[in-house]
Amino acid sequence: MTSEERCAATEPRAAPCASHLVTAELALLTSISYDEAEKLSPEERLSGSAAQEIHRVQCAGSDGYPDAVVACWQETSCKAFARCVVNASGPSKAPRP
């Protein structure tokens, strides 16, 4: 499976939790708790094309991200799912042009 195919296959699980994924990544990068990071995150939840774009950026930033999405697929809440994914994949890196 190509990177693009792996990203597309995991989008239905990850995109609905995009806001939580951003919050979990913020917590990891700043070494603060998830709850503290959540206070810094926008109250409006990401959805639709914005959530899909977050997922695509995460895929581009880390080869391990789609694998982490699959490994954490069974987590029932977005918060637990996001924490699992970020802990499994580590912080993403900005894609190189």
Secondary-structure topology with pairs:
Elements: H1 3-14, H2 18-30, H3 34-40, H4 48-61, H5 65-71, H6 78-89
Helix pairs in contact: 1-4, 1-5, 2-3, 2-6, 5-6
Give me some keywords for this one:
97 residues, 67% helix, mainly alpha, 6 helices, single chain
Task: Explain what you see.
The protein is mainly alpha-helical and 97 residues long. The chain has one domain. The protein has six helices and no strands. It has helices spanning 3-14, 18-30, 34-40, 48-61, 65-71, 78-89. It starts with a helix and ends in an 8-residue tail after the last helix. The model has no long low-confidence stretch (mean pLDDT 84).
Give the N-to-C terminal Cα separation. Answer: 23 Å
**Outline, from the CA principal axes?**
globular
Percent of residues in beta strands: under 5%
The H/E string reads HHHHHH
Annotation, overall tally of beta strands: 0
Round the Cα radius of gyration to an integer and report it.
Answer: 12 Å
Sheet of most strands: none
Number of domains: 1
Q: Low-confidence parts lasting 5 or more residues at pLDDT below 50?
A: none
In helices, the fraction of residues equals: 55-70%
Structural class: mainly alpha
Number of helices: 6
* Overall pLDDT level: 84
What is the structure about, briefly put?
This protein is an all-alpha fold.
